[in-house]
């Protein structure tokens, strides 16, 4: 019985040892799998905190390598931002340079060449209604209706090159109301005629006897100081054309423009008449030595000019009586412009005096020059009669 008890005890003792060993083994196995699961959880969390692209590519690098990779990507992104900013700045600089270059190219490009204006302007309307209402048009109204004028009463056609450069010369003294009418009617006419023109009002200073022809010589001289005019229209301030087809320009022969005045019943008073409004080219004007300077008072200078033209073999050209109609502003004879008692004697000796009395003997003094919006006014001292 004692032997059986010892055998059973030994068997039980061995069984307990095996059980204990299994328990220990189970504990170790449990701990092993627990630790492995913990490491996997840590790695999963780290991968979640990293860029999703690394997690998606099943990156198996160590945490330090992953950190370095993240830092490298950030550095790369920073460099990319800098490059983009630099690229943006370079783009802005390039754009600015392109604008400057385009501006320079435009400046270097030659202006668009205009063709010559036609011989007969397509803007003409023909007969005009000319009325001298009271009160006279204001200068403000004339300015408003002629916005394309430049300083000094200058104008150029915007769409073509004018065939002639024309200076309009007006002898003047104390005729402001008449000048308003002249500017009101003539500026639109001259622009429709597509002339490159300027208006010069030559105002005689002082109260001495009026000298129309000398003022015309002065206007010619002063206008050429401004511009290379080719044609000169000499116009009294009180004469208005009634048809814009009567072009205020120069022709192959000296031109009489005030052909048929209402003052004379719209007829030419005599065939040699060259008064009122006329035009001459620079060559024609110089050929006759300009106008005489010694006609003081009213009358005579027009006939003297006709004699000068005839002596040089030139003839007077005119438009038809219908196209050449014009109206005169009625007024009293100006003071200090009485009839010239010497005019008939001087006319008789034109051929003897024309080469020494004219543009080559002209003397005067400019008192004041005013560049106004509608005209250039030049006030001059013409001296006194001998």
UniProtKB/TrEMBL annotation:
<keyword id="KW-0479">Metal-binding</keyword>
<keyword id="KW-0808">Transferase</keyword>
<feature type="compositionally biased region" description="Polar residues">
    <location>
        <begin position="54"/>
        <end position="69"/>
    </location>
</feature>
<feature type="domain" description="Galactosyltransferase C-terminal">
    <location>
        <begin position="255"/>
        <end position="332"/>
    </location>
</feature>
<dbReference type="GO" id="GO:0006487">
    <property type="term" value="P:protein N-linked glycosylation"/>
</dbReference>
<keyword id="KW-0328">Glycosyltransferase</keyword>
<feature type="region of interest" description="Disordered">
    <location>
        <begin position="54"/>
        <end position="121"/>
    </location>
</feature>
<keyword id="KW-1133">Transmembrane helix</keyword>
<comment type="similarity">
    <text>Belongs to the glycosyltransferase 7 family.</text>
</comment>
<feature type="compositionally biased region" description="Basic and acidic residues">
    <location>
        <begin position="74"/>
        <end position="88"/>
    </location>
</feature>
<dbReference type="GO" id="GO:0003945">
    <property type="term" value="F:N-acetyllactosamine synthase activity"/>
</dbReference>
<dbReference type="InterPro" id="IPR029044">
    <property type="entry name" value="Nucleotide-diphossugar_trans"/>
</dbReference>
<keyword id="KW-0333">Golgi apparatus</keyword>
<dbReference type="Pfam" id="PF02709">
    <property type="entry name" value="Glyco_transf_7C"/>
</dbReference>
<dbReference type="Pfam" id="PF13733">
    <property type="entry name" value="Glyco_transf_7N"/>
</dbReference>
<dbReference type="GO" id="GO:0005975">
    <property type="term" value="P:carbohydrate metabolic process"/>
</dbReference>
<comment type="function">
    <text>Responsible for the synthesis of complex-type N-linked oligosaccharides in many glycoproteins as well as the carbohydrate moieties of glycolipids.</text>
</comment>
<dbReference type="InterPro" id="IPR027791">
    <property type="entry name" value="Galactosyl_T_C"/>
</dbReference>
<dbReference type="GO" id="GO:0008092">
    <property type="term" value="F:cytoskeletal protein binding"/>
</dbReference>
<protein>
    <recommendedName>
        <fullName>Beta-1,4-galactosyltransferase</fullName>
        <ecNumber>2.4.1.-</ecNumber>
    </recommendedName>
</protein>
<feature type="domain" description="Galactosyltransferase N-terminal">
    <location>
        <begin position="117"/>
        <end position="250"/>
    </location>
</feature>
<dbReference type="GO" id="GO:0046872">
    <property type="term" value="F:metal ion binding"/>
</dbReference>
<feature type="transmembrane region" description="Helical">
    <location>
        <begin position="18"/>
        <end position="35"/>
    </location>
</feature>
<keyword id="KW-0472">Membrane</keyword>
<feature type="compositionally biased region" description="Basic and acidic residues">
    <location>
        <begin position="101"/>
        <end position="116"/>
    </location>
</feature>
<dbReference type="GO" id="GO:0003831">
    <property type="term" value="F:beta-N-acetylglucosaminylglycopeptide beta-1,4-galactosyltransferase activity"/>
</dbReference>
<dbReference type="InterPro" id="IPR003859">
    <property type="entry name" value="Galactosyl_T"/>
</dbReference>
<keyword id="KW-0812">Transmembrane</keyword>
<keyword id="KW-1015">Disulfide bond</keyword>
<dbReference type="InterPro" id="IPR027995">
    <property type="entry name" value="Galactosyl_T_N"/>
</dbReference>
<keyword id="KW-0325">Glycoprotein</keyword>
<keyword id="KW-0735">Signal-anchor</keyword>
<comment type="pathway">
    <text>Protein modification; protein glycosylation.</text>
</comment>
<keyword id="KW-0464">Manganese</keyword>
<dbReference type="GO" id="GO:0000139">
    <property type="term" value="C:Golgi membrane"/>
</dbReference>
<dbReference type="GO" id="GO:0032580">
    <property type="term" value="C:Golgi cisterna membrane"/>
</dbReference>
């Amino acid at each position: 019985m004692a032997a059986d008890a010892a055998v059973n005890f030994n068997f039980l003792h061995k069984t307990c040892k095996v059980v204990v060993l299994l328990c220990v083994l189970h504990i170790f196995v449990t701990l092993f799998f627990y630790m492995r699961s913990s490491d996997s959880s840590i790695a999963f969390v780290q991968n979640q905190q990293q860029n999703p692209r690394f997690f998606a590519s099943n990156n198996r690098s160590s945490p330090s390598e992953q950190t370095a990779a993240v830092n490298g990507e950030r550095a790369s992104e920073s460099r990319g931002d800098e490059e983009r900013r630099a690229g943006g700045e370079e783009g802005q600089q390039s754009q600015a340079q392109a604008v400057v270059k385009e501006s320079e190219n435009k400046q270097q490009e030659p202006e668009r060449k205009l063709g010559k204006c036609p011989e007969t302007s397509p803007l003409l309307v023909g007969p005009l209604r000319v009325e001298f209402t009271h009160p006279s048009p204001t200068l403000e109204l004339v300015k408003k209706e002629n916005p394309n004028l430049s300083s000094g009463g200058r104008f150029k056609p915007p769409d073509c090159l004018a065939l002639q450069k024309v200076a309009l010369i007006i002898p003047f003294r104390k005729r402001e109301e008449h000048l308003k009418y002249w500017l009101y009617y003539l500026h639109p006419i001259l622009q429709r005629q597509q002339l490159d023109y300027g208006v010069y009002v030559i105002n005689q200073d002082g109260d001495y006897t009026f000298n129309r022809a000398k003022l015309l010589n002065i206007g010619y001289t002063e206008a050429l100081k401004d511009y290379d005019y080719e044609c000169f229209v000499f116009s009294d301030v009180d004469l208005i054309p009634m048809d814009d087809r009567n072009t205020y320009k120069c022709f192959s022969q000296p031109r009489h423009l005030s052909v048929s005045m209402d003052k004379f019943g719209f007829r030419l008073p005599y065939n040699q008449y060259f008064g009122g409004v006329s035009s001459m080219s620079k060559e024609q004007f110089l050929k006759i030595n300009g106008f005489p300077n010694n006609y003081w008072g009213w009358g005579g200078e027009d006939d003297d000019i006709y004699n000068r033209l005839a002596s040089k073999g030139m003839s007077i050209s005119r438009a038809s009586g219908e196209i050449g109609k014009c109206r005169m502003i009625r007024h009293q004879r100006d003071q200090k412009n009485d009839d010239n008692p010497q005019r008939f004697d001087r006319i008789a000796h034109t051929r003897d005096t024309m080469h020494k009395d004219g543009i080559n003997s002209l003397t005067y003094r400019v008192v004041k020059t005013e560049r106004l919006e509608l005209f250039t006014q030049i006030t001059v001292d013409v001296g006194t009669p001998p």
